[in-house]
Design a protein that fits this description.
The protein folds into three domains: 176 residues, Thiamin diphosphate (ThDP)-binding fold, Pyr/PP domains (Rossmann fold); 154 residues, 3-Layer(aba) Sandwich (Rossmann fold), CATH 3.40.50.1220; 190 residues, Thiamin diphosphate (ThDP)-binding fold, Pyr/PP domains (Rossmann fold, 3-Layer(aba) Sandwich), CATH 3.40.50. It has 575 residues and is α/β, with parallel strands linked by helices. 39% of the residues lie in helices and 16% in strands. It is globular, with a radius of gyration of 25 Å. The longest helix has 22 residues. The protein is built from 22 helices and 19 strands. The strands form four sheets. It has a six-stranded parallel β-sheet, with helices on both faces. It has a six-stranded parallel β-sheet with strand order 15-14-16-17-19-18, sandwiched between helices. The structure holds ligand OXT, adenosine-5'-diphosphate (ADP) and magnesium ion. Adenosine-5'-diphosphate binds next to helix 11.
Length: 575
């Protein structure tokens, strides 16, 4: 690293100068960026100070991974790339996990890291935090760019923005060697190197023949089903989606982050008849959802024996046929595809007996669950605690729910209804623990609405120290820790003279942890106490932890995905 300021080209005396720092900030502002998430130090410290001095917001985190998760969720919620700024090598690597996660989830994000000087890195001469970040980032994102000259900063930011938000959204890495930040050039020339990009995420219109093929297939269906994924939620064409559902009368089921895109209380919602509709449908319309592990790759017993034909709406052409044959691919953006289909399907209605059969199953399952939610138990379990949370959130439908854990995740997804689009952020495509506090921060910042994070006690631990970031910025976040004392369960027997590898210290007081970090804290042991505490914390807008004591024996191994768990067929051997 070099702290010596250089000049890009000789400039006559008295000419006004700009530098890499200022050009980077000008370019970000011109691309509509207001919030940056990150963690400062050599060589990017000035980025934070200068960004704030310009009247923008810099949210300073305790670990870059959480800043990165925040940026990615900002991207998901706003359709603009979320920006994360880090220092070099270790800071960059911490942020890289979040960049990879953003790319996997199709969230637009740009990771900007300072780096060591090329001439030293390339000869491996041992610079401060030396690392070939540009190349290391490549496999984890859509594109990895480096800027070497101040006059290229504008174009680099535009290329990063366009790459992140156009087509399938995802992560981009932007490498800025330390010396470039302070390299100067004539201000007027610098200004000329910047521009506002026109239409960075252009509509992608499906071919009319593809629309007709899909519509013909749907018209012939006896048991059609719409399956919404988070790509449909991301598209922000909520009114068109609702019209499509209501005009066609087709039942729909959401993937987890698409819950609420059309309200869970809508009469065509089939979420509680999930197995039935996946198995018995004949034509499935996938809208921004991949046939990956979360959908059993489109095959096997999840999908039943009824022959299935798929219509798939996706902006990424090579997503089609990724797992099973797709009878009617519809490549384009969700809004264009949905509206083209609506035009072609005018007058079509799905068979009423199919919808009413699905609705019966859906409401029957909901009624059975409702009974469990209100059943008292000696120690709170997932059902009655989440039932209490659900009832409170019903009165606060614009709250954003962040959710991580295993049982804490799967039960909350099932129990808690969502009424509005993009009000649920969770562990996503990778099922990654640790997204909690970063996601909660970004959700509060970007929406200005209250946030409730329901976290398993293991999940919370991955980003727990970031709770101080929430209290520091006074964010209206309530973190409910489902404290069962362990990963999946808190009652596993420990081997002789050891502590079980699945357990945590039962003396842990998350409520006191909150108070120690400048927040509010309350421990609850009954659903009634939980309701009261949650209602109060949402009303107060104060950053709060509710330490909810859950029966240590209430969870199951790996939650709803125990089928993916690998166990030894031979069993345990003692040395
Ligand atoms: O139709 P059927 O009969 O099938 O019933 C379905 C619906 O119809 C019905 N349903 C309803 N009924 C009534 N009312 C309503 N409203 C309703 N809605 C639905 O309910 C059932 C289930 O519905 P669902 O969920 O839609 O369907 P299903 O079949 O489950 O769907 C399949 C999936 C795959 C789509 C779904 O299960 C899903 O989305 N799963 C996501 C799972 C996931 O991602 N899990 C997280 C990873 S687990 C594991 O990896 C963990 N780790 C390891 C680790 C990770 N992940 N990351 C990192 C960085 N390091 C390590 C760790 C450490 S979890 C974990 C920590 C766990 O401990 P914690 O303390 O944090 O948490 P606790 O477990 O609480 O202790
Ligand atoms: P889920 O996990 O909810 O099933 P996935 O993340 O697997 O959803 O799938 C999201 C899909 O949506 C991706 O294949 C992505 O290419 C697609 N997508 C994202 N944005 C759009 C959009 N605006 N229009 C069409 N498809 C989109
Ligand atoms: Mg737990």
């Amino acid at each position: 690293m070099s702290s010596v300021a250089t000049q890009a080209a000789p400039v006559a005396e008295g000419v006004e100068l700009t530098d890499g720092f200022n050009l980077l900030m000008d370019a970000l502002e011109m691309n509509g960026i207001k919030n940056i998430y990150g963690l400062l130090g050599i060589p990017v410290t000035e980025v934070g100070r200068m960004w704030q001095a310009r009247g923008n917001n810099f949210y300073s985190f305790r670990n870059e991974q959480n800043a990165g998760y925040a940026a990615s969720v900002a991207g998901y919620l706003t359709k603009k790339p979320g920006i994360c700024v880090t220092v070099s090598a270790p800071g960059f690597l911490n942020g890289l996990t979040a960049l990879a996660n953003a790319t996997t989830n199709c969230f637009p994000m740009i990771l900007i890291s300072g780096s060591s000087e090329r001439e030293i890195v390339d000869l491996m001469q041992g610079d401060y935090e030396e690392m070939d970040q540009l190349n290391i980032a490549r496999p984890f994102c859509k594109a990895s760019f480096r800027v070497n000259r101040p006059e290229d900063i504008g174009v680099a930011v535009i290329r990063a923005v366009r790459t992140a938000v156009s087509g399938r959204p995802g992560g981009v890495y932007l490498d800025i060697p330390a010396r470039l930040f302070s390299t100067t050039m004539a201000a007027l020339e610098g200004e000329k190197s910047l521009w506002v990009p026109v239409d960075p995420a252009p509509a992608q219109i499906p071919a009319p023949s593809a629309v007709k093929r899909a519509a013909d297939l749907i018209k012939g269906a006896k048991k059609p089903l719409i399956l919404f994924g988070k790509g449909a939620a991301y598209a922000q064409c909520d009114a068109d989606i609702l019209s499509f559902v209501e005009e066609t009368g087709i039942p729909f089921t959401p993937m987890s982050m698409a819950k609420g895109l059309v309200s869970d209380l809508h009469p065509q919602c089939a979420a509680a008849a999930r197995s039935l509709v996946l198995q018995e449908s004949d034509v499935v319309i996938l809208v921004g959802a991949r046939l990956n592990w979360l959908l059993a790759h489109g095959k096997g017993k999840t999908w039943g024996s009824e022959p299935k034909k798929f219509v798939q709406i996706d902006i990424q052409a090579n997503e089609i046929d990724s797992n099973v044959p797709i009878a009617a691919p519809l490549v384009g953006d969700v809004q264009s595809c949905i509206n083209a289909l609506r035009a072609e399907l005018k007058g079509f209605k799905a068979p009423a007996e199919w919808l009413s059969g699905v609705a019966d199953k859906h409401s029957g399952t909901r009624a059975k669950l409702a009974a469990k939610l209100s059943t008292a138990t000696p120690v709170m379990n997932y059902h009655n605690s989440l039932g209490a949370i659900r009832d409170v959130l019903k009165n606060h439908p614009d709250t954003i729910l962040v959710n991580e854990g295993a049982n804490a995740l799967d039960n909350a997804r099932m129990v808690i209804d969502q009424y509005l689009p993009r009000k649920r952020v969770d562990t996503g495509t990778w099922g990654v623990m640790g997204i909690g506090m970063g996601s909660a921060a970004a959700a509060a910042v970007e929406s200005g609405k209250p946030v409730v994070a329901i976290c398993g006690d293991s999940a919370f631990g991955f980003s727990g120290m970031e709770y101080e970031t929430l209290t520091r910025y006074n964010l209206p976040v309530t973190v409910i820790i489902m404290n069962n004392g362990g990963i999946y369960r808190g009652d596993e027997a420990s081997p002789d003279h050891q502590i079980s590898c699945m357990l945590f210290n039962p003396k842990t007081r998350y409520d006191q942890f909150s108070i120690a970090l400048g927040g509010e804290g309350v421990r609850v042991t009954t659903p009634e106490e939980l309701s009261k505490a949650l209602e109060a914390s949402i009303k107060s807008g104060k950053t709060t932890i509710i330490d909810a004591i859950i029966d240590p024996g209430a969870g199951v191994e790996s939650g709803r995905i125990g089928n993916l768990n690998i166990v030894s067929t031979i069993g345990k051997k003692k040395k």
